[in-house]
Amino acid sequence: MTAMRVKNLVSEQWGHATIYTDSSRMSQKQELSSLYKRSLSQLLQMIPETITVTEEDTMPVEEYTQPSLSYMSSSMFATILEDTIIQIRILDECNSELRIIKTLADIKLLRALKFGIAQPKTADELENIDPKNLECENYKIYKLDSDRRNIINAITDLYVEMTLNKNYKTLTSFLNSIFDKEHYRIALAENEAKNKLERRELTKQIRQLRNHIKTVLYDNEVTIDSLKSQVEETLEKIEKWMSKYDRDMEGIDIDMQRKKNHYQDMRDKRINFENTIEKHDLLMKQWINFKEEREKARIYRENMTKSAIIVQAWWRGLLVRRRLGPYRVGRKRRGRKKK
């Protein structure tokens, strides 16, 4: 007899009952789950922890032959990738603070898209970047969002290809793109070193120009002094005009206040008129409804009176024709014969 375990107690109007579970089925489920975990751990051990790329590996990754994986391996890899995609999407959807900050950073673009402003088909990534403010939080948010999207797209494409084609071409192409970007960054670093040398030469020229500017500034100080005297005279005139402006503005403010008071009075009158008109309209509607109801009652009484007269006339005619009721012909009484 197989061991049974109490699962639930049920009590109804018909009585009480106990629900048991089959321990054999529970043990089978536990064995299947342990087998799945062992196969998953073995598959994870097959994945190398680190991937090293040396300079000798000059051949692109795409040129290597990529044999198809077995159905079990591809399915297990796809299962792992599926869990990874779900976790990344949950991380992206649940981070409300980052989404709000990203929305505020892109508010200009979102407003332009909302009102249908045409956007350029090809946009330069460095167009809106300020070299003097590279530590800006918006740039970090853009970089974080871009990296997450690239990773999600790469993992999703790899998941689809592992599921359908049982290979990893998308992963190799993604790695090649990363290597190309790394080589591009190295080239940029070399160009930056060259630019530093050119910058040193330009700084020397700037020093020479500064010395020349100092001599020119000395000559310009004389003209500046004369201009300062003119500026002082102009400032005095401005003060006079400002005092006149203040006096005029006081008068204008008084007039505006009067106009506002007059406007408020007229507005109150208009509101009173509107309320009176609304009450009048309501009374008129009530009066019209009363007249209609009264006319309906009059017509109803008139129709009922006419109907009663017609019924009475018909009934009286019927009595006359058939000689019924008061119109019945009386029988002659036989009198006694006189002697």
In short:
The model is unreliable at 1-10, 12-20 and 46-65 (pLDDT under 50).
Can you tell me about this structure?
This protein has 339 residues and is mainly alpha-helical. Among the domains are: 1-42; 70-117 and 132-167, no CATH class. The protein contains six helices and two strands, in the order E-E-H-H-H-H-H-H. Strands 1-2 form a two-stranded antiparallel ribbon. Helix 3 (96-105) packs across helix 5 and helix 5 (137-164) crosses helix 6. The longest helix has 154 residues, at 169-322. The protein is flat, with a radius of gyration of 51 Å. Mean pLDDT is 77; it is low at 1-10, 12-20 and 46-65. It is found in: Cytoplasm, Cytoskeleton, Flagellum axoneme. This is Dynein regulatory complex protein 9.
SSE arrangement:
Layout: E1 4-12, E2 15-22, H1 23-45, H2 71-94, H3 96-105, H4 107-114, H5 137-164, H6 169-322
Antiparallel strand pairs: 1-2
Helix pairs in contact: 2-5, 3-5, 5-6
Family: Belongs to the DRC9 family.
Protein name: Dynein regulatory complex protein 9
InterPro entries: IQ_motif_EF-hand-BS (IPR000048), IQCG (IPR042618)
- The amount of helix comes to over 70%
Q: Which segments are poorly predicted (pLDDT under 50) over 5 or more consecutive residues? A: 1-10, 12-20, 46-65
| Total strand segments | 2
**How would a crystallographer describe the biggest sheet?**
2 strands, antiparallel
Provide the β-strand percentage band. 5-15%
Structural class: mainly alpha
Morphology call: flat
| Helical run tally | 6
Specify Rg, calculated over alpha carbons: 51 Å
Mean pLDDT: 77
Order of helices and strands: EEHHHHHH
Termini gap = 132 Å
> What strand line-up does the widest sheet have?
1-2
